[in-house]
From TrEMBL:
SUPFAM superfamilies: GAF domain-like, PP2C-like, PYP-like sensor domain (PAS domain). This is SpoIIE family protein phosphatase. InterPro entries: Bact_Sigma-Reg, GAF, GAF-like_dom_sf, PAS, PAS-like_dom_sf, PAS_4, PPM-type-like_dom_sf, PPM-type_phosphatase-like_dom. Pfam families: GAF_2, PAS_4, SpoIIE. Keywords: Hydrolase. It comes from the Bacteria. It comes from Streptomyces camelliae.
Amino acid sequence: MSDGPGPGSGQAPPADGAAAGRPVLSLELTSMIEEVQAHSGAVYLLRTDEPVLEMAVHAGMPRAFAAPWERVGLSAPIPVADAARERRLVWVGGEEAMAGRYPRIAVVLPYPFALAAVPVATESRVYGAVFVTWPGAHPPELSDRERAHLTAACDRLALRLERAAAENRPIGPEADVLPVPASGVADTLGSVEATRMVARLPYGLMSLDLHGRIVFVNAAAVELLGRPAGELLGTLPWVSVPWLNDPTYEDRYRAALLSQQVTSFVAMRPPGEWLSFRMYPSTNGLSVRVTRARAMADMTPGAVQSGPAPARLVTISQVLSLAGALTEAVGVQDVVQLVWDEVTPAVGGKAMVILGSQGGRLHVLGHRGYDDPHVVERFDGLPLTERTPGTHALTSGVPAFFDSQEQLERLYPGRHETPDGFAAWAYLPLIASGRPVGTCVLAYAEPHAFPADERAVLTSLGGLIAQALERAQLYDAKHRLAHGLQQALLPSSLAPPPGIEAAARYLPAMHGMDIGGDFYDLVPTLPLTAAVIGDVQGHNVTAAGLMGQIRTGVRAYTTVGQAPHEVMSSTNRLLIDLGAELFASCLYLRLDPARGRAVMARAGHPPPLLRRPDGRVRVLDLAGGPLLGIDAAAVYPTTEVSLAPGSVLVLYTDGLVESPGIDIEDALVDLGGLLSEAGDQPLERLADEVVRHNAAARGRVDDVAVLLLRACTGP
């Protein structure tokens, strides 16, 4: 398999100069595979321009087996990414461990095999990672000898890559390495006699290479397959034989190679003859025996189950689509809907439930497919100590499969009191970050057997769902926290002075956590009342917290009697002293309804609009200073504006009038037209109209705050 150092040689690889023209990565990889008696592996190199690992060489198996992971993000939940990112050896001891820890791999390759991923790194730099795989018969733990060999080999490879980088000799992708059948085992005469012997056997024999292509077929196999030898040699059997064109049969070939275990299936040759295929794998291909099988109707149930493997529940393309869709799921209800739309139909289910827990009790996070929702919802709030299949799967992290109602009721006698109308169930624990975060229940309309391969696929799907659910629960928790924080920082109600009506609206940006730095307030002081609106840059908790501090500062400076320009200057210095390195725009005004006027100061904020009682609207061109937080010595001049009874002042943040593709002047004209036509409406209704009508607000990428003030016409 390799011309590199043999197992236990103890020799360091030759210097790169001595190995000029030789493939460095493939030699190191094949040597590593031989040393630990693995059967496949790959070397990944970390790109220098982005956090991505790219497969540079693959050995032992066709690259197609690892095709979905040829290019892997450094943050991806994949063993090689974990190894490189965390600079540690990652060991996955078998099919069950893979399904629980790396469901994206297990759902595509639900076969018994073990895997180790090792970082290729020096003390100062990570160059990539290596993975190697063993058949399913490998012990569940990695031996000290294997661990030492893998670590030492990857350390040697890292040093070679470091030397190559220092000498500006990039080492890049190399040709994959596949083992070739042994030659020279028999002489020519012996080979001819072996061929004659095989030809005399009463059953069909084929030999497949690692890619699944037919490289030998005897006369009996030709007769059974019904195709001339010339049309079979060099082809894939599921391509050249039409009735073998089923993903199940290709899946058996992949399972045999990866697990290095004998696999089998039966297939019907039209019009009604059943053939049995048994695959005997080795590290350089497969031998396949083809014989006639009894008619399926004559088989006992046990024989039927032991013959063909179950059809793949999902294809690779479906898995990749599902993984992508779950990645885009934002909240818990998005995950519930995606499981119903994507997973349940793919596995043949007719209903599903997602369960979670909080405070020691079971919670139904969502369900679909039940004619009577109360059948499911009655379990909401059930103590986790209750003995039910849902609570057991959630607390133990162990999947449970029930082929029939009788089987379920035998283990859970109380279940017959709450029938749901279904006949088989799969309870899949949703395990993320090493802990159960919920349970996915899939219900089937008819009794349904769950063979081992199907259980592995379902368990792997549960891992994908778990990762999405964990992210969704975190998002929902952050959303609730953000919403509560935003509501706490904004005034719960407005208390305008006599002679003034007020209405306000706040809309978060369409993207993000529904939290931002926009704020407004009315500060009732005697004899005058102050109004303020502002916008701290950013859409995060930091911006919201700073907004709360500014709002508190404005209130304090107003309460102690500072004039509008002094309030702005004091708030500016406060923002600089806080050292937040964020800027804020602000518009502050002192209302004097008795005298029909308002005194305003502006710090880089959009100018307000004034609607006069006769319906005319104008943009108030106010003098102003720079944004708050830039210059401690900034001056903020004031402007006095007439506020006749019936006038409406419209204060807003830039999210109302600024949006990609929309000219701000056009947006202001549009807003002025609305105020001119609808400005006589009750102020609360007008506030709704303002935020609903504005085109920029409908597609908003920024927060929107609006504060409307109307001078009353009477006492």
